[in-house]
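Attaching the record inline, Q. Sequence:
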Amino acid sequence: MFPLLFLAYVVAVKVFKKTTPNGKVTVYLGKRDFIDHLDSVEPIDGVVVVDNDYLQGRKIYGQLSTVYRFGREEDEVMGVKFSKEIVLSKEQVVPQIEKRDEKPSLTPIQEKLIRKFGNNAFPFTFHFPASSPSSVTLQPGEDDNGKPLGVEYTIKTFVAEHSEDRGHKRSSITLAIKKLQHAPLARGRRLPSSLVSKGFTFSQGKLNLEVTLDKELYYHGEKISANITVNNNSRKAVKNIKVFAVQHCEVTMVNAQFSKYVASLETREGCPITPGASFTKTFFLVPLACSNKDRRGIALDGHLRDDDVNLASSTLVAEGKCPADAMGIVISYSVRVKLNCGTLGGELVTDVPFKLMHPAPGSMEREKANALKKSKSIERTRYENSCYADDDDDNIVFEDFARLRLNEPDE
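Structure, as predicted:
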């Protein structure tokens, strides 16, 4: 008889943590990305763990705040500010205040942490206000030394006598989080298209251009397919064709708009398209953040680490609401096609809008993306599981949340 070997695969739960400089208070968050589902936004649930006998009658307060920076920090002179900080929510975390009308309900990650840390753990929950903007960061240039433009969210906890006190750096914690939107489960069957024509002075006939995309919604890293058909019924010849993926940004605070090319190609295939000729071909573009690393002003999903950078997702609004009412930095995308007809003929240009987003959790595309990500870090996963399998019954893996510590102002 051969002994039977039973292999147990342990699934570790990752929890982000950050400790005050004096080491007395630690904040734990189950995640850093919170998804806006249009009709609701995921709550920010975490736990504060404080050392025994540290507070001595003082309290721990927590707050959710956003910073909307719409101008360069180095241009702020004579008291002019190009940013606006808003405290969205604030409450006393330790000791907890019981509310008569509300019974505290714990999320699964809060229950795990309270089981682990016992009476020293205090849960907290914050909620994003309705219509709050998504996290977006505009990529700084080489000469930009200040904080990047965009919308950022932070969770801050601090020890103080009263809620109006600012607290001291040694007993305060600031954690950067992201509010994001994911694509709806159904992509839809509509194929975006555009048909435009151009006539020429002192010349009969028109140049016709039709552009059709193979879908309306694309996921980050997915190939965009644009079918281009040119019918030249004019007396001019098409010299070349240019195709771009364009990112459009609207900064609502200052009512400013600008656009950036995030992918492009130029071809002379089939050119010149002479009078009376036709041309049809499918072109492919892949807009990626890694292809635009050195370009100032490219909008990115507010990122916390260099390995999770991607282009900003398209801004969605709830059904029945106008896109113009969206706050923050409103992002949209289009495929732009240009036909060059020479110096005298000019250009024929058209834009076809599309959406660029992350797959929704639970969708097949999201599962495939997660599987690929896991396969790339399988060795790290095995290491974590082996190290933390016996950590406690809930198998929690803690990851330091150290960002922003160096950016905190001295008190």
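Confidence is low (pLDDT under 50) at residues 5-10, 374-393, 403-411. The chain has two domains: 13-182+391-400, 193-357.

More tomorrow.
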